[in-house]
Amino acid sequence: MKIALPMKEGKINRHFGKSTIFAMVEVEGKEIKEIKEFNTLNLVHQHEHLATLLQQHGVNVVIAGGMGLGAFIALKSRGMEVEAEVAGEIREVVNSYLAGKIEQHRDTKCDCSKGDCDSECSSC
């Protein structure tokens, strides 16, 4: 299984659409085998292209802070499981997911439709 997570300073980036680096986690059974980072700077707010890239890399699951409907639909339409409103260190979050204990944090949302969107917001 491959899990992708938007990343900033070793943690889940709270803003999916502005993420410039993703962690790609290779999992066998319930064990993390490898964590790689890849640059997505050219795909900021290009949800369809990012979803296609993740699909091409064989991603099964995306775990994110927050994301808007466009990104959610793009990922789901390509058969990926999406866990949103999650926060924490990359390795800890993946281990929680594998243990079936992932925690969603409802306070990571912002309302970009009202202009309340900055680099720390999470619902885009």
What does this structure look like?
The protein has 124 residues and is an alpha/beta fold. The chain has one domain: Nucleotidyltransferase, domain 5. It has three helices and six strands; from the N terminus they run E-E-E-E-H-E-H-E-H. Strands 1, 2, 3, 4, 5 and 6 form a six-stranded mixed beta sheet that branches. A hairpin with a 2-residue loop joins strand 3 and strand 4 (31-39). Helix 1 packs parallel to helix 2 (69-76). 33% of the residues are buried. Mean pLDDT is 84; it is low at 106-124.
How far apart are the termini? 26 Å
Q: So what's the overall shape?
A: globular
Under CATH at level 1, the class stands as Alpha Beta
How many domains, in number, for the residues?
A: 1
Task: Using the CA coordinates, give the radius of gyration.
Answer: 13 Å
Annotated CATH topology: Nucleotidyltransferase, domain 5
Structural class comes to: alpha/beta
Extract low-pLDDT stretches. Answer: 106-124
What characteristics describe this protein?
124 residues; alpha/beta; Nucleotidyltransferase, domain 5; 6-stranded mixed sheet; disordered C terminus
Produce the secondary structure layout.
Layout lengths: L1 E7 L2 E2 L8 E8 L2 E9 L7 H10 L4 E3 L5 H8 L4 E3 L6 H9 L26
Parallel strand pairs: 1-5, 5-6
Antiparallel strand pairs: 1-2, 1-3, 3-4
Helix pairs in contact: 1-2
Provide a brief overview of the structure.
The chain has 124 residues and is α/β, with parallel strands linked by helices. The protein has three helices and six strands, in the order E-E-E-E-H-E-H-E-H.
